[in-house]
Amino acid sequence: MNICVFLSAADLPERYTGPARDFAELLGKGGHTLVWGGSESGLMKVVADGVQEAGGRLVGVSVDFLAAKARANADEMVIAKDLAERKALLLEKADAVVVMVGGTGTLDEATEILELKKHGRTDKPVVLLNSAGFYDGLKEQFRRMEDEGFLPVPLTDLVFFAEEPVGALAYLEESVGTR
After folding, report:
1. What span, in angstroms and rounded, lies between the C-alpha atoms of 60 and 37?
2. What is the phi/psi pair of residue 141, to 5°?
3. Is the per-residue pLDDT at 179 higher than 90?
4. What string of H, E and C letters represents the secondary structure of the chain?
5. pLDDT of 49-103, one tens digit each?
6. In Å, what is the CA distance from 61 to each residue of 38, 46, 76, 98, 176?
7. Tens digit of each residue's pLDDT (9 = 90 or more) over 22-33
8. Sheet harboring 2-6: ordered strands across?
9. Nearest to residue 97, comparing CAs of 177, 158, 178, 22?
10. Of 7, 54, 121, 166, whose CB has the highest number of CB atoms within 10 Å?
């Protein structure tokens, strides 16, 4: 399975890198492919290293203004002309999506895939890996959106919140296997 992971390229503390490393190891040992932003920095590097060390493949999609930070030894690396093309390519190459901790870019990527799901433009499973409660506030906001009628489909049809890496991968494997 090709799993797109949206995540930060920042250097982060162990409460975030630990679960990311655990997920990467599970992904690689499971024979899956990481589809990611291609960066050799921060959390992106942690996950890419973990997948590669555990025997998984790496498919990176960087963007021209970040190409100098792209991982040299990825199995495949594509350089997109802009962020919009990058997101489209990441989703095109993926069977499923995991959202890890990140900033505004990660949030943009997460909301785009959820908007596509909401409108029936994709049926790819999406997991938010809620490491150290990072997405507790977002989960609460999504529930409010659902409760107040802003989501035309149940929240559970859009996204699965996983508290642990093993739960995230198990959900994806089950979901992709049933599509």
Report:
1. 5
2. -65, -45
3. no
4. CEEEEECCCCCCCHHHHHHHHHHHHHHHHCCCEEEECCECCHHHHHHHHHHHHCCCEEEEEEEHHHHHHECCCCCEEEEECCHHHHHHHHHHCCCEEEECCCCHHHHHHHHHHHHHHHCCCCCCCEEEECHHHCCHHHHHHHHHHHHCCCCCCCHHHHCEEECCHHHHHHHHHHHHHCC
5. 999 999 999 999 999 999 999 999 999 999 999 999 999 999 999 999 999 999 9
6. 5, 16, 8, 15, 22
7. 999 999 999 999
8. 76-80, 57-63, 33-36, 2-6, 96-99, 126-129, 160-162
9. 158
10. 7
Residue in the block written with tokens 């409010």? 144
Contact yes or no for 139/128 (Cβ under 8 A): yes
Measured in whole angstroms, the distance separating CA 100 from the mean position of its chain's CA atoms is 6
Could you give phi then psi for residue 177, rounded to 5 degrees?
A: -65, -20
Q: What is the CA radius of gyration of the chain?
A: 15
Q: Are strands 96-99 and 2-6 parallel, antiparallel or unpaired?
A: parallel
Q: Which two tokens stand for residue 17?
A: 């890198």
**pLDDT tens digits for 76-88?**
999 999 999 999 9
Is there a contact between 40 and 11 (Cβ–Cβ < 8 Å)? no
pLDDT averaged over every residue in the chain: 95
